[in-house]
Amino acid sequence: MPGQDQQPPWGKKKKPQTPEEMVAQVIKKIQDYFSDSPKKKGPSGQPSQQGEPPSPFAAIGKVLGIVFIVLILQGVYASFYKITPGEVGVVLRLGEYNRTSNPGLHFKIPYLDALYKVDVEEIRKEEFGFRSRYINQRSNSNNRQVYDMESLMLTADKNVINVAWIVQYRVDDPSAYLFQIKDVRSAVRDLSESVTRRIVGNMDFDYVLSNRDLLAAEVKAELQKELRNLKAGLVIGTVQFQDINPPDKVKPAFNEVNEADQDMKRLVNEAEEIYNRKIPRARGNAKQIIEEAHGYAVARVNDAKGESHRFLSILTEYKHAPVVTKKRMYLEVMQQIMPTVESIYIMDKNQQTPLPLLNLSRGNTALTAPARATN
Question: Measuring CA to CA, which residue among 218, 120, 252 is closest to residue 175?
Fold first, then answer.
């Protein structure tokens, strides 16, 4: 009927319906392709039992064709690559640096470009004088001896000190990190140990013990300078000193020296405390005595000047009126003396015996005081 699909006279060809059937069909075709002797079909459509001998060149051509197809598929698969966040891809073309790829999906020429992925956000760490983790959570005597050799150093005053520290770094230039230095980790360890030993060797024992922050900052700056000269492509993040102590064999002697040093500092502080308490007070007292002497000298001079001016003034007045001035001076003197005298006697040349003067004001006071008390 028109509008309907007409089947071919030889019948409808069966097509694979599922992916499994397609894979099975492809495998069967490959097996038939590599069969040793191709079978010919007879007139009735059945494969005949007789066949021509296979040609060796045909088999080689089939193998080369399959290899070529595999290489093409592999090249197509290798043409695309993905860079995850935190990584950087370094692409070499024929062994020469070509470009640096940022995170994302990228394309490269297969069989010509080589890709190296570098994690630029990972903080790498190197430990010296100790290890935070051991294999099977245990350490043996050989490792302990290696750690002691790393940490033992000689100071400027020829004392032995045990120093343990950590160096943290990250990759800054991926291409330099990959191709400038063969073993970056060994280079970092060797440079860190060399720089630390040199800096500690130029410092005294006490200075190293009490200034680990300054020591870490100096080691970080010097180590970064050395890595920059080597073009290692690394940035030093942190240099931290974990433990700075004398070796175990000399710890008792060191503790005794430290105790003696602490006693010396204590005595010095006590002496300074006494000095600061006594000396300023003595200086203050001396200054007070000096100021009082100056004040006394000024007062005496001023009093002498006043008395001399008073005497000169009285002398001037005495020259103008001698009798009045003399009498006034007598009265002023008697006014000052009389209140302090208890008994007064008046001597008269016409009298045979002295005449006592009764102090009425003193007597009234003495008489009225008991009266006031009785009231």
Answer: 120
Instruction: Name the CATH superfamily, with its identifier, for domain 124-133+143-246.
Output: Band 7 domain (3.30.479.30)
CA distances, 247 to each of 153, 154, 192 (Å) = 10, 11, 21
Could you tell me which of 242, 240, 234 has the C-alpha nearest to residue 124? 234
Using one digit for the tens of pLDDT, what is the confidence trace for 326-363? 888 888 888 888 788 777 766 667 766 666 665 555 55
**CA 164 → CA 142, 237, 345, distances in Å?**
17, 17, 106
Q: Which residues of the chain have pLDDT under 70?
A: 1-20, 22-23, 26-27, 29-63, 65, 75, 77-78, 133-146, 345-348, 351-375
Helices 184-201, 212-230: axis angle to 10 degrees equals 140
Q: Looking at the whole model, is its pTM more than 0.85? A: no
CB 129 within 8 A of CB 147: yes
Which has the closest alpha carbon to 205: 277, 266, 260, 153? 153
pLDDT tens digits, 93-128: 888 888 888 888 888 878 788 888 888 888 999 999
Q: Where are the domains of the chain?
A: 60-119, 124-133+143-246, 248-342
